[in-house]
C-alpha cells in the first residue's frame, strides 16, 4: 500500500516511528521471525522500491535511521533491508524495462522479499566481479537455461537467500555460442514457499554476529527462465540475437550502480554506528565517578585519556560526515536523473567507503581499550563490533577498492598526468619497484598511493567550493 508523505522530515519521522519496536525484537531472534518483521516494513509502503530513483534522499535516510539501532541489533536487519531495497529492487529499477519495474509494486503489496545472487564461491570479495554462472538462450524453447557449471560457480553468502521469494541472479549471458558478459535476471526462487525446480541451497552456518539474518549458498541446476526474466532495459533478445538498446552503456555498468549506492550507505552506517557507540558509552562514563583521595572523585569522562578521545572522535567524525554527506548529495543527483556517476564521484564513493569504515574501526577500538570491563558487558554495544567487519568487506572489499584507486592513478600518471607532487612521486616509486621486482615495496607503495588519493579526494569534497 502506497503511503503519501509530503516532506523529507515527515518521511524520517514516519520511518523512525515504524521501526521503533525493533530494539524489542532484538538481535537473537530466528531469521524467520526477522523476515516476518521485515515483510511488515515492506508492506507498510513507507519506503517505495522506486524511491532509490524518485526520492533518493529517503532511500539514504532509511539506511541511516536503521543504522542508529545497530549497537543494539547488530547488522542483521540492516543488511536484510539493504539487500532487498538496494541490491534486489534497485537492480530492477536500474536495469528493468517500465513493465519490469512495475512488477515491484505487486511484490511490495504481497510482501515478497528478494535477494541478490552475484557473489560466487570461486569469486569472493577479494576477486572483483567474476561470474561463472551461465545463462544460455535456447531458440528452440524461447527460454533461458540458468546453470551453475561447478561448485565454484555456486552463489555464496547470499543474504536473505533462505527466505526470499525472488532473486536478481547475475550470470554470464550466452547467445549463439557467444559470451556477452554478466547480465541480471529477475526470477522466482520460491513458489508457494517451496524452491522452484533446479534451485538448490543451504545455510552458510552460524556467524559471530547477525544470526537473525539468513545467509545461503545457492546453485542453479538447469533452471528454465522465461524470455522476460532478462532485465532488458539496456539489452534484449530479438530474433534470437542479442540487441543492445543504448550504445556505450553496458549492463555490467548498471549492475555496478548498486555497488555505488551500497558503498555510500555502508559508509554512513559505519559512522552512525560509531556515533551511537560513543554516545551510549559517554552517557555511562558521565555518570560513573572514580575514586579520589578527597571527595567523590572526578567523572570517568573527565579522565584525560577519555576526555581527549571523545574530542578526537568528534573531530574525526565531523570531518568524515561532511565528506560522506557531499558524496550522498552528488550521488542523489545521479540517481534522480538516472545517470552513471562520473569518475570523480565513483572514486569519492570508494574513498568514502574505505575511510569511513577504517575511521569507525579505529575509533571504536580505541574506545574499547579505554573503558575497561564495561566493554565486556552484553548490551553496551561493543558486542556488536563485528558490524564494522561486515562493513569492511561488503560491496567491495576495502583492499580491492584501494588497489583499484592505485591502479587508476598509476595509469593516469603513465599517460602524462603528474597531479599532486606526493602522488606523482609515489607513482614513480611504484614503477621503479615494479622494474626491480621488489614485491614487498610494491605492496606498501600501492596502499600509500591509495591513501594519498583518498586524502586528496576527501579534502576536495570537503572544501567550501565543492558544496556550491
Account of the protein in words:
The structure is a single chain. The chain is of the alpha+beta class and 468 residues long. The chain has 15 helices and 13 strands. The chain has helices at residues 8-18, 22-25, 31-44, 51-54, 56-67, 70-73, 76-95, 98-110, 251-286, 304-337, 343-370, 386-393, 398-414, 421-436, 439-462, and strands at 114-117, 134-138, 143-147, 155-159, 166-175, 178-188, 190-191, 194-195, 199-203, 215-220, 223-226, 235-238, 241-244. The strands form 4 sheets. Strands 1, 2, 3, 5, 6 and 11 form a 6-stranded mixed sheet that branches. A 3-stranded antiparallel sheet has the order 4-10-9. Strands 7-8 form a two-stranded antiparallel ribbon. A hairpin with a 2-residue loop joins strand 5 and strand 6 (178-188). Helix 9 packs antiparallel against helix 10 (304-337), helix 9 (251-286) packs parallel to helix 11 (343-370) and helix 11 runs antiparallel to helix 12 (386-393). It is globular, with a radius of gyration of 24 Å. It starts with 7 loop residues before the first helix and ends in a 6-residue tail after the last helix. The relative contact order is 0.10. The model has no long low-confidence stretch (mean pLDDT 92).
Amino acid at each position: 500500500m502506497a503511503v503519501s508523505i509530503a516532506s523529507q522530515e515527515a518521511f524520517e519521522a514516519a520511518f523512525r516511528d515504524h521501526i521503533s519496536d525493533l530494539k524489542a525484537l532484538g538481535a537473537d531472534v530466528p531469521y524467520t521471525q526477522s523476515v516476518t518483521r521485515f515483510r511488515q516494513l515492506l508492506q507498510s509502503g513507507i519506503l517505495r522500491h522506486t524511491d532509490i530513483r524518485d526520492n533518493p534522499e529517503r532511500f539514504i535516510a532509511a539506511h541511516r535511521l536503521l543504522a542508529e539501532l545497530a549497537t543494539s541489533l547488530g547488522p542483521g536487519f540492516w543488511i536484510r533491508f539493504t539487500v532487498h531495497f538496494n541490491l534486489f529492487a534497485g537492480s530492477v529499477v536500474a536495469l528493468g524495462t517500465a513493465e519490469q519495474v512495475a512488477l515491484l509494486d505487486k511484490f511490495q503489496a504481497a510482501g515478497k522479499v528478494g535477494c541478490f545472487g552475484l557473489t560466487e564461491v570461486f569469486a569472493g570479495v577479494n576477486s572483483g566481479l567474476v561470474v561463472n554462472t551461465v545463462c544460455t538462450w535456447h531458440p528452440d524453447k524461447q527460454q533461458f537455461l540458468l546453470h551453475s557449471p561447478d561448485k565454484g560457480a555456486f552463489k555464496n553468502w547470499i543474504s536473505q537467500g533462505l527466505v526470499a521469494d525472488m532473486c536478481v541472479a547475475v550470470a554470464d549471458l550466452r547467445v549463439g555460442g557467444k559470451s556477452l558478459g554478466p547480465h541480471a535476471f529477475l526470477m522466482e526462487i520460491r513458489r508457494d514457499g517451496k524452491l522452484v525446480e533446479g534451485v538448490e541451497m543451504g545455510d552458510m552456518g552460524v556467524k559471530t554476529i547477525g544470526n537473525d539474518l539468513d545467509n545461503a549458498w545457492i546453485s542453479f541446476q538447469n533452471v528454465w527462465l522465461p524470455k522476460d526474466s532478462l532485465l532488458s532495459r539496456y539489452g534484449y533478445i530479438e530474433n534470437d540475437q542479442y540487441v543492445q538498446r543504448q550504445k556505450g552503456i553496458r549492463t555490467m555498468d548498471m549492475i555496478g550502480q548498486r555497488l555505488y549506492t551500497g558503498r555510500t550507505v555502508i559508509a554512513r552506517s559505519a559512522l552512525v554506528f560509531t556515533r551511537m557507540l560513543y554516545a551510549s558509552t559517554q552517557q555511562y562514563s558521565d555518570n560513573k565517578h572514580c575514586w579520589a583521595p578527597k571527595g567523590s572523585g572526578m567523572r570517568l569522562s573527565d579522565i584525560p585519556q577519555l576526555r581527549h578521545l571523545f574530542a578526537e572522535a568528534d573531530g574525526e567524525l565531523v570531518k568524515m560526515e561532511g565528506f560522506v554527506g557531499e558524496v550522498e548529495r552528488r550521488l542523489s543527483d545521479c540517481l534522480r536523473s538516472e545517470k552513471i556517476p562520473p569518475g570523480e564521484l565513483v572514486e569519492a564513493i570508494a574513498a568514502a567507503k574505505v575511510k569511513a569504515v577504517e575511521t569507525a574501526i579505529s575509533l571504536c577500538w580505541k574506545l574499547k581499550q579505554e573503558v575497561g570491563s564495561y566493554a565486556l558487558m552484553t548490551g553496551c554495544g561493543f558486542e556488536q563490533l563485528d558490524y564494522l567487519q561486515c562493513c569492511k568487506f561488503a560491496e567491495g572489499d576495502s583492499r580491492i577498492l584501494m588497489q583499484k584507486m592505485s591502479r587508476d592513478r598509476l595509469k593516469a600518471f603513465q599517460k602524462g598526468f603528474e597531479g599532486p607532487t606526493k602522488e606523482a612521486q609515489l607513482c614513480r616509486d611504484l614503477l621503479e619497484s615494479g622494474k626491480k621486482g621488489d614485491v614487498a615495496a610494491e605492496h606498501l607503495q600501492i596502499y600509500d598511493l591509495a591513501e594519498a588519493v583518498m586524502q586528496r579526494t576527501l579534502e576536495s569534497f570537503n572544501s567550501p567550493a565543492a558544496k556550491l
